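User: Structure tokens for both sequences below?

Assistant:
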Amino acid sequence: MLTGKALIADLNACTLPNGQAALWWCGQQSWILKLGGQVVYLDPFLTPLPSRLVPPLLTPADITNAALITGTHDHLDHIDRNMWPGIAAASPTATFVVPDLLRKRLAAEIPMPEARLAGVNDGGSVHLAGLTITGVAAAHEFLDRDAATGRYPHLSYVIEGHGCTIFHAGDACLYEGLVTKLSRWHFDVMLLPINGRDAQRYRSGCIGNMTYQEAADLAGTLKPGLVMPAHFDMFASNPGDPEAFADYVRAKYPAQAVAIPRHTERRVVAAVPF
């Protein structure tokens, strides 16, 4: 497992032709994505909590090569507020992509220059570093649409560029209309949470995600080139079962490619013609 400067060196050494993407999983729903020469940190979670089962694999100072950083919603393991100023300093030209509903508040409270934050909403896109990032409303466990503005605090992101299309679900449950929204794309990779939800976790403030069966059915319906599970490894009180997910996909959707990620193992994915 690569960490720190060794992981950054592997990112920088990875060269990709058009139509290929590379992914490194850092635990939970934290990924590093490389498209062309651009490096995108998806929901980097770097705070060294005692309850973590997987320690942070990078420090903010290590992240000197970021073009974009995403935060799908304002929970510590997705928008790591204490770590973002350090990332911003180490990658001074990087932009942080967040739900537009939260943009001004995050700028004030982190604090960060508002110009470093780009906001998106459901169906809206930003075009940065040669990539397009589109927001898709996420239900975590509710959609929680802001009545005054119609904007959403929880998003999934579709990242497009260099001939590839990636879906990063963030934290999400299924809801009516989600498949229709996502059907406009053909995904080369879908990154889906599988830890599920239940009453005990909800009462304790642990907001849930789709079950592994729901995630398998979403992938089976949309038929990405590859589906990879996440959000199953970080906390003993909020686990998931990636083997059960992969087995269910193989049993129910035998034509669907599935892979269980390993921490910081480089995975190169080729775009699938359709």
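Moving on to the next sequence.
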Amino acid sequence: MLGKNNELAGRVALVTGAGKRLGQAIALRLAREGADVAVHYGKSAKEAQEVVEEIEKQGRRAAAFSAEMTDVRAIRKMVADAAGRFGRLDILVNTAANFLQTKFAETTEEGWAASLDTNLKGPFFCSQAAAPHLAKFGRGVIINFADLGGLLGWREFAPHSISKAGVVMLTKVLAKELAPAVRVNAIAPGTITMPGDPPEWEQDYVQKAPLGRPGRPGDITDAVMYLIAAEFVTGHVLVLDGGRSL
């Protein structure tokens, strides 16, 4: 089990969507555990650079890389640049996503594509590009991010829910495709609140989840650490929802 600094020393992680929120928290946790980190961002260049600077203060190597998750050529270049910069790639965490509300009758082709391309196409092609690097040392790890919408389905979030259901199946397919050199798992969070989030999010979750609280970033980063360390786990979707899906 991970828990001491330098447990990941010598390993390199690429975290997509690492400029903000959970992606940022994961990138910083990986660095605290000893990994060097490639920090991907889409539009959050300033925030990504701040993450890089924070990681470097911890004595780890870090660099920021930009790519639009709907652009396969940009994804491939980003992965190649990251692997070239650090000399290897051991861990890929696909957190980059959007969360678009779309009423069923008002869903457009553009809205459909916005959800499916970013949330499903992006992780697929990031994984495809990263796989040869991850497999090189026989201990590669991919962690995808689904959510409860992909398991339960949400009204007025049809494209989003379908995209995240696709991430669940993507995880299972990749676990078979890339075994045994690369393990592939997913995390499906419920409501995870960050500082500054609307208080009604937390109130809603307290009412609906048996554990009586929303998740915190530390709950997610602990799960990431577990899945990196759990060498007999692949193709699994770890639900972190305080029991809400019950």
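User: Anything stand out in the second?

Assistant: The chain has a mean pLDDT of 94.
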